[in-house]
Structures are given as C-alpha cells and as structure tokens.
Design brief:
single chain; alpha/beta; Isopropylmalate Dehydrogenase; 2 domains; 13 helices; 41% helix; globular
Length: 333
Amino acid sequence: MSPLALSLGDPAGIGPEIIACAYAASKREKLTPFFVVGGAEVLRAAAKQRGIALETVQIADPAETTRAFASGLPVLDGLDGPYEPGAPDKHGARLALASLTQATEFTRNGIASGLVTAPISKAELAEVGFSHPGQTEFLASVCGSPERDAVMMLAGPSLRTVPLTVHCALAEVSALLNHDLICHKARIVAAALARDFGIERPRLAFAGLNPHAGEGGRFGDEETRIIEPAIAALREEGIDATGPHPADAMFTPRARLRYHAAICMYHDQALIPLKTLEFDEGVNVTLGLPIIRTSPDHGTAFDIAGKGLADAGAMIAAIRLAGECAERRARDA
C-alpha cells in the first residue's frame, strides 16, 4: 500500500508540532507510514521547541517513504520557510497552500493512499488568493467532484456525527433543509461507512431540528414536512435509517450504541457532542470524494503554538483512520 501524504498546515499554528509528535508516537501507535509535503526546517524547529528529538529524512519521491520512515520523518524536498509560532503571515500561508496542493495531487494520482491535512487559517489563505471556503471545498474542486458530494463527518472512538448544513447562520437552516439534501448526504454516508469503515449494514440515526423533534408539530413542522418523508424514502432504498429523534437524548452512552452515525441538521448540533466527548481524538473525515481525506477536528490554535500545550491525539487519530480506510480500499480493490 502507498504511504499517506500529510500537508503541513499553517507553519505558525500547531500543525508542525503535532505532526512531529505523531511521528514520535508512530511505532507505539502502529501508524501507516506517511510523508510530509515540505517544511523540513519548520518541523525540526517545532520539534526542538517541543522537546522532541526528531530526525527528518528529506526525500525526492514519495516512493522513498517506507524505507525512510524507520530512520526519520520523511519530508518532501522543495518547500520550506521559517518557524514563527503564533505569528501567521503571507509567507506561511503560501507554504501551507503549496503543501496542501501538492499533497492533494499525490493522493489524487494514487501516489499516496490517503491525505491527512493539518490545520490551516482560512483568513490567511484568503490573503494569498485562496478562494474556497475551506480545505474540503478545495479538495472537491481539485478532485472534480460536485461540492455537494463532499460530506463532512466528525469521527471519534464512540461517536460519528454528520452535519447536513455546515457554515451558515442558524436562521437559514430551516430553509436549506430539503428532501434531496437529506437523502443525498445520507446515501453518501451509508456508502462510506460500508466501504471505508467496514460496517456491513450501517445504521443512521437522524436528529430532529426542533426541540423534542417538533413534538408532533407543536414546535415546528420541519420534522413531519421534510425529515420524516426523507427517512421513509431512505428506508425504501434499504438504508437503515431511524428518527427524527430528539437531539437532546441522542448522545447518551446508551443511545450511541444504537447507530453508527448521527445525522444532524446543523453545524453545532453535530460538533458540540463530538467535541465534548472526543475533543482530543476527534477526526474530520471528508466522505463522497474519490480520495481518502482526514484531518484533526481542531484549528490552528495560534494562541498556544510553540508553547508545548497542543495535544497530538487528534492528529494521531486522523493518521490512524486514514491508514485504516486506505487499507480497506486496497484490500477490496
């Protein structure tokens, strides 16, 4: 199996240090071999500031990764810059964008078996001409996939959640919800759970939009007018879908045993429980693309970069999950 490609993320954020931490833990965690696209000096400086004895092995070709991985962290030649934690600038944004672009191409072309993206700053990237709302939309564009096919799933050890609407005002959610949106994204989730997570018959639980899932129309009619008909249609297709369930009771330990993914109506409905339960191990997985892509479910954390405070658990989890998904795809190919 080909190695995983890691993009550096914003060099002023915590990405470089958690990548270094992940490599330091790679043997213990039995991680799939990976290489980083650029930033050898940044990574060495971040590791030193973190107190990690990191050896880097500069490679000219990703094919060298497996051989090099036992000796040090493989880093692709050609891209680098200064390490100034907590001080983002245009130079760092250009490095982050170049790393992301090359890492994506390696994955899209099959040279890498999966892509793990370190956190970037959307505001900083916008300053250097990045026109996409985020990395997910960028990946969909590069892969030639409709943006609506790129579905965000947040995954942790005990919970997976999918927001049907993402970066929009809460007041807009009701108008954005419709039968096609719900069914389209649910099909993508069910297919990905089977293909990449090895779940033979995925169970999807849908949250209601309103308190008590509308309580029969007393608190809103989106459940009876939109969500229930969509769930019925999915069941007719053979997808194990239940709901709409009151969101306030969907995330208890007992409830989480009844489904493989919770389909939520809006951003915070999905992210609050995931981050509450799995903050240090939460992984952002992009479903619906021809490539495997994971990322730690947190941002650049400029405020703690270089201070030795960043937890690498989510980066380790993202690398582990990308490797597991790539292995399943390789086995089933």
